């Protein structure tokens, strides 16, 4: 039984900071922050879930079926992640590349303590709360101040898993597949990493978020493993019977000069190559959504619209569908997983080719983080623009990728990867 409490906050940003500091005592944390980014589909401004009452952690084998059973049996809020490698549960595929992070393939927990922000109103829900527990926690949160802010990291030397010449060779290999007709588009990714090093996860997240201010920022802790994400992309959301997917394909840098910045935005909007990339993924997502949709309800609500973020301009499309009220939420996710924006078209061929060409197991990168509500609604982001950290192994990693099509220039694709990596590199190398 959840106890609910409503609290009015005078300084939301200060309280959010105090709340994140307070949350660090727990082994299970999911923090999601929209950074007040204006968007049509949004439940809350920010959400914090901490302190697992129950949890599930498993590999990919029957992963979605286990999640389905867990989500059904809890009939409550659950928070967690799906790694990219759950593709091996959906299709006859494998993931045999190097993995320095060792995140479980699937992890969700039912939080004892839940904080939901909307404007200056905070809704708090506690599961099986004891007397005065909530009041004691609020007092502890409000006692925290700047003197308890985590200290800066030392500068970290980042290594490349794939060096520039090897990257060109691999992209040219992928282009040969495209010219043979094996695949039309594939999202090829590379890892940047540091070994035998330590970071302060919260300080790293706060710095990354301040640089990017994305609509799907995430701080996730699973015991000794952390995700620090500045994701701009929604994977999938269900609200009632409506399902929404918002793939990103197409990236352009920002400029400090307004006229030049507008030109960069315009050039992205009219780029044949970028529009082609985006449209191919929209077609793939329409097909994925149709597997669970009521016939005739899949709709492209927005095609190739350019949105502006602090670091980059992005081309985003919005695809929606309607499902029957008795369609299980996990079935909707399974039928669209992994997301088209991180795979390619045709999806299975793309996943086989990129598995052969990439040097790193993706794990949580290009997976999804989010939550299910008790009413079977859900909301998940795409794990991109993110730093991943295994504290025990002292391994830090971030990956970036881009869509390769017949029109791709390997040098420009490499430059786009460096642009996407800029915020993570700045945070880690100062």
Q: Can you walk through the features of this model?
A:
By secondary structure, the protein is α+β, with helices and mostly antiparallel strands. Helices cover 32% and strands 33% of the residues. The chain is built from eleven helices and 20 strands. The protein has a 20-stranded antiparallel sheet that branches. Helix 1 crosses helix 4 (133-143) and helix 6 (201-212) crosses helix 11 (410-429). The mean pLDDT is 94.
Task: Label this structure with key terms.
430 residues, alpha+beta, Anthranilate synthase, 11 helices
Sequence-ordered SSE layout with sheet pairings:
Blueprint: E1 2-8, H1 12-23, E2 28-33, E3 46-58, H2 63-74, E4 78-82, H3 87-90, E5 106-118, E6 121-127, H4 133-143, E7 159-160, H5 164-180, E8 185-194, H6 201-212, E9 216-222, E10 225-231, E11 234-239, E12 242-246, E13 248-253, H7 258-270, H8 272-290, E14 299-308, E15 312-322, H9 329-334, E16 344-345, H10 347-357, E17 368-372, E18 378-381, E19 386-390, E20 395-404, H11 410-429
Antiparallel strand pairs: 1-6, 2-3, 2-9, 3-5, 4-5, 4-17, 5-6, 7-8, 8-16, 8-20, 9-10, 10-19, 11-12, 11-18, 12-15, 13-15, 14-15, 17-18, 19-20
